[in-house]
Amino acid sequence: MAVLKHKTHNTQENSENSENTSPTLVFGQCKSVQNAMLVDIGVVGTSKLGSAFVYSFGCVVIWGLTSEHDTLLVKMLSRFEIEPYSSIEMDEFSFTVSEKTSTKDGDIVIESGPGSAIAMVVVSHALAQSVKIAQFEERVQETILTVEPLAKELQSQGRLASLTMREVGQRIGTLFLLRTQVNFGDIADSPAFLWDLEDLELAHSHLAKYLEIKKRVTFLNDRMDTLGHLYDILRDESNNRHSVQLEWYFFFLF
After folding, report:
1. CA-to-CA distance for 91 and 29, rounded, in angstroms?
2. pTM for the full predicted model
């Protein structure tokens, strides 16, 4: 989840929260915008309006709501989750409104007027990419922590007794699926709809560079390559152990 706060609205957040002890959100227009679902959001009893971009790969980018309303919206969306993660990954940014969209050095400026909607789409996509990559980084780190004891076992005992061939194969399949999700979705590349929007493509590029999206994807792939090599070694060791067992069975049968 990525959250964006209007810089001029930050001072209003505490006062509005105190007036709305039990906030209620209402949903306005909902439409498909490029590769996301855009939802207009209002808060009952206030003039506050916000927007949320919901992505099929499990991210939501929320614009212009308070922290309390963000939490409520995420809770409402959780009813539609499929295989949710154990924790929510969240980044928070501030933005301002001006004549031209810009994201240089991470300072998000959204142009006013008719072009603001598509500008928000472009910025939201980069932020959603960053949050999703952070989730992948956490999953790869968790995998590394589970592999380290296996490598130490192989080093100290010269064999792997704690995993079966089937379990090694399942781990290889999980790693392959993770690599596919990182490299063959909307996570690693710029969206195709930017090709005809030169100024906004530059804004997306600046923000992606600030968030180090390409560097992080490359680093993820390097770590997954290392994990893949280690799993290959574990699989070979498991296959050799299985072959030895078959030779002993044949010997006794003979």
Report:
1. 25
2. 0.79
